[in-house]
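Title: Comparing notes on inverse folding

I've been comparing how different people in this forum approach sequence design from structure. To keep things fair, I'm posting one structure and asking everyone to reply with a full sequence. Here's the target:
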């Protein structure tokens, strides 16, 4: 049936892609996990040497922007940054775009914001050490534009979309007690972006050296959420994967299982 020019229908599962915010401390395995996403991956890289663990893989193409100056962030103001649409048409085997990392992009955005404010308002006292609210606000706008621009583009081309970011220092009370730890992104960006994504996972390594994936808040970390995994039980699980041989279940297998179940949530992996 229709309501004006819009189709009205009963809710159904037609999930053909996933959108994931993947965050955690350095060395937790975020890059390795993202590399298990479906199909060939286009890796938009801002972290210096961030692709070192991807060497040898034939299913990843890297757009390395890690050595660029801060002006590069303005390229993401476009709805089609770097004319990615034409590139994707030339490479139809690409199924996933990875943005790595939003934290590094945010730092470049802050540098760009301070530079632009100094140009436009020469008497304004701002610096990287003291960006002032105007500097932080401009940075946040640049980061949100980049993330949402790629969100729209990946939706248009029905591609999976993974955003990697790092873990911030702890937020504490006046006595130094840890209240929570969240992503290393400014202001309300984690919440604003998180609302648009189906998955937010936190990664960490435990004291046994095992890689852990959390799909709901735990260990003073937030935000996490999942439409893919059942969240009524344990909030996290051990990820059993051989990173040397690239063997084991990962994002591709979990997504396919979720899709086969028609959107019914998967049990937390136990092995």
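Reply #1:
Here's my take.
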């Amino acid at each position: 049936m229709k309501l004006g020019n819009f189709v009205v229908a009963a809710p159904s599962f037609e999930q053909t892609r996933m959108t994931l915010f993947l965050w955690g401390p350095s060395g937790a395995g975020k890059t390795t996990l993202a590399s298990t996403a479906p199909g060939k991956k286009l890796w938009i890289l801002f972290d210096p040497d961030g692709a070192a663990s991807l060497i040898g893989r034939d299913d990843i193409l890297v757009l390395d922007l890690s050595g660029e100056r801060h002006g590069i962030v303005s390229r993401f103001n476009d709805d089609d940054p770097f004319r990615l649409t034409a590139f994707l048409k030339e490479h139809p085997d690409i199924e996933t775009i990875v943005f790595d990392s939003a934290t590094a992009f945010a730092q470049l955005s802050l540098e760009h914001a301070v530079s632009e404010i100094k140009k436009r308002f020469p008497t304004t006292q701002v610096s990287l050490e003291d960006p002032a609210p105007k500097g932080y606000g401009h940075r946040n706008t640049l980061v949100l534009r980049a993330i949402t621009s790629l969100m729209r583009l990946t939706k248009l081309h029905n591609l999976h979309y993974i955003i990697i970011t790092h873990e911030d220092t702890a937020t504490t009370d006046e006595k130094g007690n840890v209240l929570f730890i969240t992503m290393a992104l400014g202001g309300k960006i984690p919440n604003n972006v998180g609302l648009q994504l189906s998955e937010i996972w936190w990664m960490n390594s435990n004291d046994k050296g095992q890689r852990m994936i959390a799909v709901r808040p735990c260990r003073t970390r937030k935000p996490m959420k999942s439409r893919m995994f059942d969240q009524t039980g344990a909030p996290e699980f051990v990820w059993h994967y051989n990173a040397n041989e690239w063997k084991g279940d990962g994002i591709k297998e979990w997504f396919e299982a979720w899709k086969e179940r028609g959107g019914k949530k998967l049990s937390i992996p136990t092995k």
